[in-house]
């Protein structure tokens, strides 16, 4: 299986997990009025997860570009859109999941924020570590 | 010419002035909403103002001093601006939890979005500049 295909399969699995979690959360919210999820807080939590994923992505891209800068023929980033989406999906999945968990545990505001932020970084980093094992930096159509 | 120095200065001042206004005007909507979430909100504001101050000093140093005196922040600006964006989003979350005041949320989130834009613009410009220098 090629690295791109492997990463695409990984992202499909993430999307399936997110769909399952979203459907469960919607069902619980509709049938269990005790779990109050403010849509504004949910949106802000998604924004924080996005920022955490973007931060991890920026650090990673910076490190990759710095590694190529010292070479005579620097290699471009391969399929940057795939790289970016993988980071963001990992961050969103863990961020949303732990936001819902913190709401169910009635955590206070700052504990909720800490949980969402930390686990968004962890999710993005986990996907990055999985992706870097199987998606090397190489020129389009060239050898590794 | 230091890359996008005016954008960085505007982003830093914009992000830094929001907690300053909240601090100096305890009767404001954002101050009242933040005070309901406990003292942690004020520590986050202090952290945001510290990040903004470092960004302003970085702009001043890279514009006034020769390159060999440029601070190490020049290589990590994208992290600083994204950290400011995250802190602004966290404050917006705490304000929303304390009683969602839409105008206050819009001002914090707009500043947050601008910081993210400046971070990625700076990152792209830095690497383009290095490639041009090498070629």
Q: Would you count the extended β strands of chain B for me? A: 0
Q: Name the shape of chain B in a single word.
A: elongated
Low-confidence stretches of chain B: none
Low-confidence stretches of chain A: 138-144
Mean pLDDT of chain A: 77
The count of helical stretches of chain A stands at 4
Give the N-terminus to C-terminus distance of chain B in angstroms: 18 Å
Shape of chain A: elongated
Oligomeric state of the chains present here: heterodimer
Order of helices and strands of chain B: HHHHH
- The radius of gyration computed from the alpha-carbon positions of chain A, rounded to a whole number of angstroms, is 18 Å
How much of the polypeptide of chain B forms β-strand, as a percent range?
under 5%
End-to-end separation of chain A in angstroms reads: 16 Å
Mean pLDDT of chain B: 84
Biggest sheet descriptor of chain A: none
Class by SSE composition of chain B:
mainly alpha
Number of helices of chain B: 5
Main sheet overview of chain B: none
- Determine the strand fraction of chain A and express it as a percent band: under 5%
Overview features:
heterodimer, A: 144 residues, mainly alpha, 0% strand, elongated, B: 135 residues, 79% helix
Report on this structure:
The complex is a heterodimer of chains A (144) and B (135). With 144 residues, chain A is mainly α. Helix content of chain A is 77%, strand content 0%. Chain A is built from 4 helices and no strands. Chain A has helices at residues 3-31, 39-69, 80-104, 109-134. The radius of gyration of chain A is 18 Å and the shape is elongated. In chain A, 33% of the residues are buried. With 135 residues, chain B is mainly α. Chain B is 79% helix and 0% strand. The chains are: A mainly alpha (144), B mainly alpha (135). The A-B interface holds A 38, 40-41, 44-45, 47-48, 51-52, 54-55, 58-59, 61-62, 65, 69, 74, 108-110, 112-113, 117 and B 37-38, 40-41, 78-79, 82-83, 85-86, 89-90, 92-94, 96-98, 100, 105, 109, 112, 116, 119-120, 123, 127, 130-131, 134.
């Amino acid at each position: 299986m090629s690295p791109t295909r492997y990463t695409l399969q990984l992202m499909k699995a993430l999307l399936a997990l997110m769909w399952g979690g979203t459907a469960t959360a919607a069902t619980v919210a509709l049938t269990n009025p005790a779990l109050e999820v403010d849509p504004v807080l949910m949106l802000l939590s998604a924004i924080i997860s996005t920022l955490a994923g973007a931060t991890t992505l920026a650090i990673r891209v910076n490190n990759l570009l710095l590694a190529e800068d010292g070479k005579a023929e620097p290699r471009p980033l391969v399929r940057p859109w795939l790289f970016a989406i993988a980071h963001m999906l990992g961050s969103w999945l863990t961020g949303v999941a732990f936001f819902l968990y913190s709401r169910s545990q009635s955590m206070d505001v700052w504990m909720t924020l800490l949980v969402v932020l930390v686990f968004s970084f962890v999710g993005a980093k986990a996907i990055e570590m999985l992706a870097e094992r199987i998606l090397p930096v190489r020129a389009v159509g060239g050898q590794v | 010419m230091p890359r996008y120095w005016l954008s960085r200065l505007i982003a830093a001042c914009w992000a830094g002035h929001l907690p300053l206004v909240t601090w100096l005007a305890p009767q404001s909507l954002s101050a009242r909403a933040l005070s309901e979430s406990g003292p942690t909100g004020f520590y986050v504001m202090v952290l945001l103002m510290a990040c903004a101050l470092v960004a302003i000093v970085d702009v001043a140093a890279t514009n006034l001093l020769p390159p060999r005196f440029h601070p190490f922040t020049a290589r990590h600006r994208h992290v600083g601006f994204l950290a400011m964006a995250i802190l602004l989003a966290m404050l917006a979350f705490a304000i929303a939890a304390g009683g969602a005041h839409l105008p206050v949320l819009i001002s914090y989130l707009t500043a947050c979005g601008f910081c993210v834009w400046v971070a990625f613009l700076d990152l792209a410009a830095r690497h383009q500049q290095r490639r041009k220098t090498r070629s």
